[in-house]
Amino acid sequence: MPPTSGVLARSRRDNAFQKMQQRESAIYQRVWFITGSSGGLGRALSEAVLARGERAVVTGRTPERVRDLIVRYPAQALVLELDVTRQDQVQTVVREAIERFGQIDVLVNIDSFSEGLAKEVGPLRIRVITIDPASNNGHPANEVADDIIASVEADT
After folding, report:
1. What CATH superfamily is the domain 30-155?
2. Contacts of 82 (CB under 8 A, 6+ apart)
3. Residue 118: what pLDDT?
4. Residue 114 needs a FRET pair 20 to 30 A away by CA distance; which of 18, 60, 65, 86 works?
């Protein structure tokens, strides 16, 4: 018969709590690289990811439209200009993202498919999600953003 002292029971509870904390800290340590963040779905996804405490590389052709995210999330957000059709920008932005956060875990490519971006992040073996922004079938951008996050969490 296993012992049932208070010390052992507390130990089991503490162990369960520690496991839960480890899982949460692993989730919230993800780094998202989101293209097309200047508006619509990209903006909604960036805000949702950052609001959850995760880190995000927020990119777009007009980064000034999302600079407010740096003010709200200075430790979590990196806002960079990126036109995914310009290989020089792709290389620079991916390098800056890794220098800042040490990794990229999830790429959500909302802008358009970019061979250059695929080539840069391919060796990182990360989760890549490519979305046609016109394909949300009239669903609000924040709902689609929540679905994307749920999909990534389901795979974690």
Report:
1. NAD(P)-binding Rossmann-like Domain (3.40.50.720)
2. 35, 59, 60, 61, 89, 90, 93, 111
3. 79
4. 65
